[in-house]
Amino acid sequence: MRQVIDVVALNVILVVFLIVCALVVERTKDLISAVIIFSAYSLMMSVLWLVLKTPDVALTEAAIGAGVTTIILIAVIGRTKRYEK
Amino acid sequence: MKKIIRLLLFAGLLGVLVINIMNMPAILSVDAPSYNDSIDHYLEHGVEETGATSIISAILADYRSFDTLGETIVLFTAIIALLSVLKVGDSTRKEG
Amino acid sequence: MKDQVLKTIARIITPFIQLYGIFIILNGHISPGGGFAGGTMIGTSLILYTLVFGVDQAKRKFSEKASAFAESGGIILYILIGVIGIVVAGHFLANKGAGFDMGTPGSLWSAGMIPLLMIAIGIKVASTFITIFHTLIEVKDA
Fold it and tell me: I need a surface site. Which of B46, C35, C112, C118 has the fewest CB within 10 A?
């Protein structure tokens, strides 16, 4: 019983963190900060996939979501403007 | 006034979402609609039919390998679109 | 970039990232992972090399010709494995019926065509990410 409560608490913490990250990404004017927060979102999502017992998706999310997406978005920002108007 | 209406609308949508999630079957439950005969088939015959002990890889690269080919073609299309729009300084092509 | 620490660390850590990516690809049929995750890791290691040593040196290591070869080669390898299924067993991407060696389930050499497909996907994905990054980071008036 104790273990079930722990897993539920971990789920709730992760989901609340995800929602906060998503809201903050929308509010941030500095686009590079937004990209870094989005990478934290992807990392939390990867831990959540691991809690949901899908290690394949967790591995792919950690590599693509937290790694490649961040770098590609920063490269795109480098070709445009850094601050949102 | 507009802002209050907007917030109320979003609160209503959030309520609908939360009620729906509360009514969903639990994770890994037997009542879930995604639990059907194909799962039993994959779990029972997956290893002897494909030889792969990781059932997810067996589904991804054997039972549904045509979909994986589609995913690969999506990546190919993406890279072609990117190169055709953004490629600079191609020294091998002559102007005109 | 001229930072000696970054250069040394990147030179040491890149082979290990690539080794882990190859491990993930080759073990795709017996453990979590597969072509997409492993290919992304190899692509990420090449992106790290580009970030530290610059585009020009990275293009000497992984040229546009090699990139084009890997791009088309991965997908053509995938389709050729499928065509073997058509010729031998009668339908596209047949595995057991096409006479691929099934081996013992759980060992590295098993599961017929699945490791070959994973290798094809891995080559394709790694080359896709590194090409996207090189194209995006190149300066327009170089």
Answer: B46
CA distance B79 to chain A (A): 13
Q: Tokens for C2?
A: 């001229």
Let me know if residue B26 belongs to a domain: no
Domains in chain A, number:
1
Residue at B1 is within a domain: no
The pTM of this model reads 0.79
Average pLDDT in chain C: 83
* Residue given tokens 């020009």 in the structure block: C56
Q: Which domain holds residue C58?
A: 4-137
> Does residue A84 belong to any structural domain of this protein?
no
CA angle B8, B13, B16 (to 5 degrees): 125
Whether the pLDDT of residue C54 is over 50: the answer is yes
Q: In terms of residue numbers, what domain contains A11?
A: 2-79
Q: What is the ipTM of this complex?
A: 0.78
Inter-residue contact C114 to B62 (CB < 8 Å): yes
Domain that includes residue B65, residue range: 39-85
For residue range B27-68, list pLDDT tens digits in order. Answer: 667 777 777 777 788 888 877 777 778 888 888 888 888 888
For position B12, what pLDDT does the model report?
Answer: 95
Residue in A49, A60, A77 to test binding to C, most C beta-carbons within 10 Å: A60
Query: Euclidean distance between the first and final Cα of chain A, in Å?
Result: 51
Number of domains in chain C: 1
In a domain, C142, yes or no: no
Element (H, E) at C61: helix C55-61
Burial class (CB in 10 A: 0-12, 13-18, 19+), C96: middle
